[in-house]
Amino acid sequence: AQSVTQLGSHVSVSEGALVLLRCNYSSSVPPYLFWYVQYPNQGLQLLLKYTSAATLVKGINGFEAEFKKSETSFHLTKPSAHMSDAAEYFCAVSDQSRNQFYFGTGTSLTVIP
Amino acid sequence: NAGVTQTPKFRILKIGQSMTLQCAQDMNHNYMYWYRQDPGMGLKLIYYSVGAGITDKGEVPNGYNVSRSTTEDFPLRLELAAPSQTSVYFCASSYLKPNTGELFFGEGSRLTVL
């Protein structure tokens, strides 16, 4: 079975500071990995995805993530936080055999002015 | 450009009542999904469909039923509502298989069972 673990349910950063949201995965086969963002009272939208091409993936709004097989990690980063980045972020891994995603429990990002 | 549309956005049910959450997409996507989101638990898959007439159970199907008579619509039926079904429900769709594609989500339906 596949799963993802997000370390830290709440992260606070100052505006302009580095954003680092952690995600570790468990998979017996090469995974596809995703980061989704959920703004208040909205559905989720895709930030970026890794599908076995380049290990450093760039997404929307200045976010990027690096796939590290040796560490089974797919951490999300952004060099400089903006107030509009305040949201809930979900890491997800796909199960190729069953056409399903498995979502992590989410990390709530607060940006302090 | 509607995308995925869910109705209703809010609903309060009494224990034992039944209701249907509606979901429609106008993107001609084959794959559709129902998730529930509970605080600190992330999203759990209830049911999914790979095309009209084909549905399958996800992680937490008990207490729910679905049907997929058309490509566009994927309603979720709650029979005999229980307090444990208080949650936010999200419908999603994708054109490609989920392992390669992008899921498009509706804005959610917030259900409270009292």
Q: What are the defining features of this structure?
A:
heterodimer; A: 113 residues; mainly beta; five-stranded antiparallel β-sheet; 11 strands; 57% strand; globular; B: 114 residues; seven-stranded mixed β-sheet; 0% helix
Provide the fold topology:
The complex is a heterodimer of chains A (113) and B (114).
Chain A: E1 3-7, E2 10-14, E3 19-26, E4 33-38, E5 44-50, E6 56-58, E7 64-68, E8 73-78, E9 87-95, E10 100-103, E11 107-112
Parallel strand pairs in A: 2-11
Antiparallel strand pairs in A: 1-3, 3-8, 4-5, 4-9, 6-7, 7-8, 9-10, 9-11
Chain B: E1 4-7, E2 10-13, E3 19-25, E4 31-38, E5 42-51, E6 54-57, E7 64-66, E8 76-78, E9 87-94, E10 104-105, E11 109-113
Parallel strand pairs in B: 2-11
Antiparallel strand pairs in B: 1-3, 3-8, 4-5, 4-9, 5-6, 7-8, 9-10, 9-11
Quick structural gist:
The complex is a heterodimer of chains A (113) and B (114). By secondary structure, chain A is mainly beta.
Q: What can be said about the biggest beta sheet of chain A?
A: 6 strands, mixed
Q: What does the main sheet of chain B amount to?
A: 7 strands, mixed
State the share of residues found in helices of chain B, binned by percent. Answer: under 10%
Rg of chain A over CA atoms, rounded to whole Å, is: 13 Å
Task: Write the element-wise H/E pattern of chain B from the N-terminal end onward.
Answer: EEEEEEEEEEE
Low-confidence stretches of chain A: none
Structure annotation, total helices of chain A:
0
Report strand % of chain A.
over 45%
